[in-house]
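pipeline/complex-builder :: batch 7 item 3
reading input block
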Amino acid sequence: MVNLYGVQIAENQLVHKALRSFFGIGHNVADRICAKFSIHKTARISQLTQPKVTAISSEMTKMVIDTELRRKIADNVIRLKDIGTYRGRRHAQGLPVRGQKTKKQIANARRFNRIQTNI
Amino acid sequence: MVPRIPWRCLRTPPQVITHPLKPRPHLHNFTTTPPLAAKPLKAKGPPPGSKMNVEKQRSQSNKIRIKKKPITVQKPAYQIGQRKELRKRIVLSNTNAIPVVLPTMTADLIGNADAAGAMFELPSEEGGDTIVDRLRALEAFQTKQHWPFFHRPCTLFRRETVEVGRLLERVMKREGTEDGRVNERAILHGYYGCGRSILLLQAMTWALQKDWVVVAIPNAQDLVIGHTEYELEGNSHLWLQRAYTTDLLRKILKANQKALKRMNLSQNYRLGRMEEVKKGVAMKEVLEKAVQDPLLAWDAFNILLSELGQPGSPPALFTLDNLNQISLPSKYRDPSFNLIHSHDLALPNTFLAYLSGKRSFHRGVTLAATSSKCSRTLALDAALEGREVDPYERLDPRVGPSIEGARIIHVDSLSKAEAKALMDYYNESGIMKDTVDITTFNEKYAVSAGNPKDLFGTCLRMRQ
């Protein structure tokens, strides 16, 4: 197990896939991180040297990812609510925000649109 | 007027159409008994003559029978790399095939035009590392070259083989400059399935027999698809692939044991950051040390190449298959996320330096083969054709100069004599169903258009 950004990751995991397990890192960002540290496509966590793992972790601390990103999104919603906008109100009611109809198919809005998110 | 006979009456009554020879379908006879008054159907039981107890039979039939599951042994999971090994396994002999007696492809045949159009078997020696084993170590054999169909690996001696042989011959006879430096550079180019890789194999066979040092990059694709480690080297601004280089050294070491043992260093060299190898040490020892440590691999490879450039060193053969792959941007990225050009990778760069004549062996042949299983490389195609590039075409400007000055050997389709030799060999090996006569030969030669790969396909397939 290797500690990457405070998370224990299995040694045989692909580096690219391990990076993508963090909220806010997708294929594109993972590609860029790998390119920055000259890590090839099929590299596994076990093949990384310790300085490289530390360098990747410190690179990730500079980025807004994971809990920080979730908090940022939640803060934005709370700001909308506080200044009394329509979007903020819709978020609070758990209804679609962007003018969708509400007769049917608002399951996702019910699921995601709320003021307090579990961070 | 209403017709007197309504049309419906003209219709023939529905009849069951029966075939005169087939049995008639069973029909119930006409009966006047209403269904309720009919006798109830008899329960199915044992035939009147049997002594079996009815009750007992009932109790037996009511038993719940659970079907026993067949005991299956679960296959163990594949180990890491096991499937790749199965995929890449090369089978060179088949005991079911009929052995064919053929002359051996010895080094005397190098550049012999009289031998063209005949089949030869690859040399096999009793005991020790045979040439075939050494070729296998260099990955000269490829899957899908139909080796498993035959009793022993054999190849066809072609016109192009003579041409390749002449390159080796010129180096052996030192028909070069006055200081004894001879370098031959060539690219094998042709249509798909025309046998470029086999020509490389034949060149390697001869070189190994003559105790040359053979350095072979079996598939350039492995270098550029981004599957091996890479790392920037500060001084040369080239990208090193240490893991691949270590692998390459291992192959070189395995194939060229004898020649490397005899090679001694002509000067001191640095190996890695700390170590130093002294003058007079055998090349084999240097490589054995480097194989253990990937950090030393690139230095050791450079030592080998520079030693091969010194007078008194054995001749060298440097080959690379699938040249097209290194004429494209690689899949690697630099830290600023730009694609790395294949020519900026150290190994392809070194090979192209030898191919274009920027670097040279003391006595050596550099051979490359193009591939048809690659995305289009317009710049390379233009360079191979030798045509002037239109400035509006926007082709890669680095590709043209990288192969400048190399002789281009066009690998053509088989001549009729060559195709006949090949087909006779197939016939004697027992893979052809048809008899070989002039009609069959002409048919198969026409269908395959003399392409060796297609010829094998047409010979193997049953006649429709």
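note: Chain A touches chain B through twelve residues (CB under 8 Å).
queue -> next item
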